[in-house]
Design brief:
Blueprint: H1 12-16, H2 22-42, H3 45-52, H4 65-92, H5 95-101, H6 103-114, H7 119-147, H8 153-157, H9 159-174, H10 180-198, H11 205-210, H12 214-225, H13 232-243, H14 256-274, H15 277-282, H16 284-289, H17 297-318, H18 324-347, H19 357-367, H20 373-387, H21 391-400, H22 406-435, H23 438-458, H24 467-476, H25 500-503
Helix pairs in contact: 2-7, 2-9, 2-10, 4-5, 4-7, 4-22, 5-7, 5-10, 6-7, 6-10, 7-21, 7-22, 9-17, 14-21, 14-22, 14-23, 14-24, 17-20, 18-20, 18-23, 19-22
């Protein structure tokens, strides 16, 4: 298999020097504000639950253990529902409009939580912000991948994860100074700004070409690349990709070009959650509260947010230099080392049964403390995850999925991911209740080994490849698009076809 041959002719390299990035970066910034909101919403209960479970809480809003658990986890069900909605919206109204539509449930959800007088308002608000997060999680990576130039797609593809982590960090920091109702008010601001900015951004050129709006697609691509950039070769390659799959009967999904990238994307999202990232983040403050750290758990959460932000920044810098697979290998290995260490520490720790899941978790965490090692191990785990399996699974999903099923399949990935997160977070509590931390940590260790093996066997290296080249890899096991695709051996778009000398 020859992975070194480019899709586009060599003259394309001269036009890359005239690529202007400012408009593209503006469009990406406008879109990823939705991911900022997702990260902010995900960890919203962290500073809120201590208040609502405290002695000074409003009696109408005071939560017991089961209500607090529901308040934290119901968001994930909302995200799964949003992923299901994105399966329809992304292809029905387009990527950009889907992102903009997510602002509606987000705004309503934060209004309900900010003005809550009953518990049901808090829970409904969490569900609605989760739905918004599910729509953006499925739509934004696809939108970014389709508007990005292939030389920047890795770096820009890590922006959704970066801004989600930054949103969580902002929530942790604001939680130290703002009342919980004002945190809800602040949460509505990024969604509003996102809608305002996206009004002036173009839709995806691939989306426009799939709707046979060729002139609008060309204008959108020229705006994204700059007036001096030669867009014709890139536009022809997109036309070819769209023409090969404009009409897709269900029977065609049995072909490897469609089912293989879908399976890879879904399994990566499944493995990503099975590493244990969601339950570890959910129980993050209890872990620090029972460790040998003298800081307040709220400050510890800020420190973790900074570590996550640093690791995502490292991934963004290395994405288009080291490649996707190298970062996935590194991420899997770091998570494996940290979870193996936690497994060995908790293996001989006595398990003290308690009256309920929450108390059991805290008691088990307390008994497994072994100096600073558990704290360091958790930090290494979070660093490793955020450097690889966090951002790259989203990027690869948007890169490998064929255009004709990209919207539906990305929604499916989000739904599978967050249903898994909900189930695993709940199962974690019951496993700790019955066995202590040893069993879940051992499970996470095994999953990290599976992540290594899956990366080695199934994941293609997409660094420096156009979306059309990646799609052709699943069709022919070669990244190079041959000239024999069209009838009679004549390529329909000659400027998008490499010369015979390049293929030999």
């Amino acid at each position: 298999m020859d992975e070194s041959r480019p899709l586009l002719p060599r003259r394309q390299s001269s036009s890359e020097s005239t690529l202007r990035k400012s408009n593209l970066l503006l469009a990406v910034f406008a879109a990823v504000l939705g991911n900022f909101n997702f990260g902010y919403s995900l960890v919203y209960p962290s500073p809120v639950l201590p208040v609502l479970q405290g002695p000074d809480a409003d009696p109408r809003l005071r939560m017991d253990t089961s209500q607090a658990a529901l308040f934290g986890s119901v968001f994930m069900l909302g995200v799964a529902g949003g992923g299901l909605a994105a399966m329809l919206l992304t292809d029905l109204i387009g990527r950009k409009l889907s992102i903009m539509a997510s602002a509606i449930p987000s705004a309503i959800g934060y209004l309900l939580m900010g003005g809550a007088t009953e518990l049901w308002m808090l829970h409904l608000g969490r569900i609605l912000t989760g739905v918004a997060g599910g729509v953006t999680s499925a739509s934004i990576p696809v939108y970014i991948s389709e508007i990005s130039h292939k030389s920047l797609r890795g770096t820009l593809g890590s922006c959704p994860q970066f801004t989600a982590v930054f949103g969580a960090l902002v929530l942790y920091a604001l939680g130290l100074v703002l009342p919980w109702r004002w945190l809800a008010v602040v949460g509505g601001v990024p969604a509003l700004l996102m809608v305002v900015l996206l009004v002036f951004m173009p839709d995806s050129p691939r989306r426009l070409l799939s709707l046979e709006r060729e002139q609008q697609a060309e204008l959108a691509l020229r705006w994204l690349r700059g007036a001096d950039y030669d867009v014709q070769s890139e536009l022809d390659a997109i036309k070819l990709s769209v023409s090969l799959q404009r009409h897709l009967p269900w029977s065609q999904l049995a072909k490897p070009v469609y089912y293989r990238p879908i399976i890879i994307s879904v399994v990566m999202r499944l493995l990503q959650q099975l590493t244990g990232i969601s339950p570890i983040l959910v129980y993050l403050q209890p872990i620090f509260a029972q460790s040998n750290v003298s800081l307040d758990p709220g400050y510890d959460a800020v420190i973790v947010g900074l570590v996550r932000l640093l690791s995502v920044t490292v991934a963004a810098v290395l994405m288009d230099k080291a490649g996707r697979k190298v970062l996935l290998y590194t991420s899997s290995f770091l998570m494996f080392l940290s979870t193996l260490t936690l497994t060995m520490i908790s293996f001989n720790a006595p398990h003290l049964p308690g009256p309920g899941p929450s108390n059991l978790t805290l008691s088990a965490l307390h008994t497994t403390a072994a100096g600073p090692i558990p704290l360091i191990s958790v930090m290494v785990f979070i660093f490793g995850y955020a450097m690889g399996w966090g951002p790259i699974t989203w990027l690869l999903m948007s890169e490998v999925l064929p255009l004709v099923v990209r919207g539906v399949a990305s929604g499916l990935c989000v739904m599978v991911s967050w249903l898994t997160a909900f189930a695993l977070t709940d199962a974690f509590t019951h496993l700790v209740d019955r066995y202590g931390l040893y069993v879940p940590y051992l499970f996470f260790t095994v999953v990290c080994v599976l992540c290594l093996l899956f990366t080695a066997v199934c994941v293609p290296e997409t660094r420096g490849r156009s979306l059309e080249e990646i799609e052709n890899y699943f069709r022919t096991r070669r990244f190079t698009i041959e000239c024999e695709y069209s009838n009679g051996g004549q390529h329909p778009f000659p400027t998008a076809c490499p010369s015979r000398g390049q293929d030999e």
